[in-house]
Amino acid sequence: MNQQHTYRILLNKEPEGGYTVNVPALPGCITYGDSIDESITMAKEAISLYLESLVEHGEAIPSEENTLEYHLTVEA
Questions:
Q1: What is the pLDDT of residue 14?
Q2: Low-confidence ranges of the chain (pLDDT < 70)
Q3: Exposure string over 46-60, b if 16+ CB within 10 A, otherwise e
């Protein structure tokens, strides 16, 4: 039976249009979509393929269970 995993994704709006999507918990798991909806769909696919590869290679599946997230504002 498959397990469900939840990951945070970051969508960065690109100057030329569309969004680059990064999955911080999965190094190198990056994708792109023309709209927010497409970006989310592409992220789901990229995450699934990433996890499938980890399983095939006998590697552990990362979890964000113990991840704390903060937003800091600093002056530069």
A1: 97
A2: 1
A3: bbeebbeeeeeeeee
SS3 category, 22: strand
The reported pTM is: 0.87
Q: Which helix (H) or strand (E) holds 37?
A: helix 36-56
pLDDT, position 1: 53
15, 9, 63: which is closest to 37 by C-alpha? 9
Token representation of residue 69: 């997230």
In whole angstroms, what is the distance from residue 7 CA to residue 58 CA? 20
| pLDDT tens figures, 24-43 | 999 999 999 999 999 999 99
Radius of gyration of the chain measured on its C-alpha atoms:
14
Tokens 């190094």 locate to 27
